[in-house]
């Protein structure tokens, strides 16, 4: 959703419409034929890859087993970079000044991983310097995000309240798994989706 909104400049378009200024502006970009780089090719990354391919995008992906040169190639080549990796000691601050400098000047960066995967000050500097075409943040360094942080009011930034996987249907599935696990505990059976 954030990739589509940023590539088509939906927030800018809504503001233009509200002012009843012009028809046909702002001019966004198509995603067809563009490259999506996914950092974190787990379940969510793979689902995003399939959706992007359905839009005609080329997809590159890296995992925790990928090399530094592979990450750098992804950053250089991608029109959109979407982060979906867990926060670990090796991913904390993964995207900093050097990585942002490798990205295309018009690239879109989406952070759907954890806020601290991206170095906040480096991102703020890149946004201020107009080094990126847009930034989508569904995770933040502090949650809820501070109201007075200027990053969130910048027109190139689309920020959401950490709702990437939230929907009425997801909550229904949570309830179904919870109910099933209550029955399984009573019957002495293995739990679904056991964490520990």
| Residue runs with pLDDT of under 50 for 5 or more positions | none
Report the major sheet. 6 strands, parallel
Radius of gyration: 19 Å
Cα-to-Cα separation, first versus last residue: 33 Å
- Principal-axis shape: globular
Mean pLDDT: 93
Portion in beta strands: 5-15%
Q: Supply the number of helical segments.
A: 7
Structural class: alpha/beta
> What is the string of SSEs from the N terminus onward?
HHEHEHEHEHEEH
Total strand segments: 6
Family: Belongs to the D-isomer specific 2-hydroxyacid dehydrogenase family.
Pfam family, one: 2-Hacid_dh_C
InterPro entries: D-2-hydroxyacid_DH, D-isomer_DH_CS, D-isomer_DH_CS1, D-isomer_DH_NAD-bd, NAD(P)-bd_dom_sf
Protein name: D-isomer specific 2-hydroxyacid dehydrogenase NAD-binding domain-containing protein
Task: Describe the 3D structure.
InterPro entries: D-2-hydroxyacid_DH, D-isomer_DH_CS, D-isomer_DH_CS1, D-isomer_DH_NAD-bd, NAD(P)-bd_dom_sf. One of its GO terms (molecular function) is oxidoreductase activity. The structure is a single chain. This protein has about 200 residues and is α/β, with parallel strands linked by helices. Helices cover about 35% and strands about 15% of the residues. The chain has helices at about 1-5, 10-20, 45-55, 70-75, 95-100, 120-130, 170-185; strands at about 35-40, 60, 80-85, 110, 135, 155-160. β3, α5 and β4 form a beta-alpha-beta unit. It is globular. The two termini are about 35 Å apart.
